[in-house]
Amino acid sequence: MDTKSSSKKVAVIGLGYVGLPLACLCAKKGHSVVGIDINKDIVEKTNKGISHIKDETLEQRLKEVTGKLVASDKFDDIPSRDVIIICVPTPVDEKYKPDLRPLKSACEKICKLIKKGQLIVVESTIYPGVIEEVVKPILERSGLTAGDDYFLAHCPERIDPGNKKWSVDSIPRVVGATNAGGLKAAAEFYRSVIDAPVHELSTVKAAEAVKIMENSFRDVNIAFVNELARSFDKFGIDISEVIKGASTKPFGFMSFYPGCGVGGHCIPVDPYYLIERAKTAGFDHRFLKLAREINHGMPEYTVELLEAKIGDLKGETVGVLGVAYKADVDDMRESPALDIIRILKERGANVIAYDPYIPSKSDVKSLDELLNKARYVILAADHREFKEMDPARLKEHGVEIIVDGKNCLDKEKIKALGIVYKGIGR
């Protein structure tokens, strides 16, 4: 690959939450981009300039590059590309084991088509060793050798859906490759795309470990504060006040916040990749497993907070505000709200859900309709509509108890109205 040429022919495989923003950015920066996805509906919408992901910035950017970004459900363009970026999902299965099937499938399809001189980058989150032990052997069925005939690198994705400050073009990136030439090629390409530093790591395994470390760090700290919330609740201490107090220390403290669970495709998934990979190397990640156990148990704890106030949930109508995993997005991946709904139903409750960003998963058409039907409410996503709600609306509709799973509501105002308020550690 000619790393000095400014414009490249790029293929982005997987047009999801990672691939679509990246493909749009590459097109905006002047590269010729084909986006490949096996979902024909996504392909059709992308070619029409319609984002299948609800995000204002992404929706606008896709419109700007319509015609410059071409989507396809076929891999025919792979041989003509200079850069091939793999952005397919890397989930865990029902037993929390890493599921590399989408990644393996993508590699098997392109190995028949790759040519000498191409740069192949995996952005999907993977555990240390996947590039050299899984990806490389599949690609080399082509008869080409990584480092000699083509470049193979890893640049772990960094994207935060809905974040207006930190976007795909402004977040610093790290890259690692199987050889020095691949590292140079990958770093130069990403510098042509993003408006942020690109940090080169000495090995591809180090790059693979970066994303796992970032999200395991968050998972552990969230688990710590979730455990504190449950402990402080026994003492009648409001953990929000304690966090504010501790954060006045100008060094040695970083604020994390408790909640009804941890969602998204990263934090509740990535630690399992390291846990399972470490087992094969003879190491037991006890700390990470405990963090996962604590955070995985928060949806049930949230339901138990309601049970503690009303007793048996059988036959009771409970409203759930939000099914997305975070504020102001339509992303339900690993959402704790889904577990909360499941647990409520298992315990005999009649559940009514509402999410303004996900009408297809809402049982009612408006917040007022939900409040009118449910005396008991659990807030599971801190959408702007819920946070900015006047507490008087709860009173007007006859809500008796609200469990604030995101600690985002005004506790004192709600209690002053005679409504029972319960937060996570509040």
Can you characterise this structure?
- The protein has 426 residues and is α/β, with parallel strands linked by helices.
- It has two domains: 9-202, Rossmann fold (3-Layer(aba) Sandwich); 236-426, NAD(P)-binding Rossmann-like Domain (Rossmann fold).
- Helices cover 40% and strands 13% of the residues.
- The strands form two sheets. An eight-stranded mixed beta sheet has the order 3-2-1-4-5-6-7-8, with helices on both faces.
- Helix 1 links the parallel strand 1 and strand 2.
- The mean pLDDT is 94.
Oligomer status: single chain
Lateral arrangement of strands in the main beta sheet: 3-2-1-4-5-6-7-8
CATH architecture of the largest domain: 3-Layer(aba) Sandwich
Mean pLDDT comes to: 94
Terminal Cα span: 57 Å
- SS-based class: alpha/beta
Shape: globular
The largest pleated sheet is described as: 8 strands, mixed
What is the helical fraction, as a range of percent? 25-40%
Strand content: 5-15%
Low-confidence spans? none
CATH superfamily of the largest domain: NAD(P)-binding Rossmann-like Domain
> How would you spell out the order of helices and strands?
EHEHHEEHEHEEHEHHHHHEHEHEHHEHE
Q: Fill in the CATH topology of the largest domain.
A: Rossmann fold
* Number of E-state strands: 13
Our count of domains comes out at 2
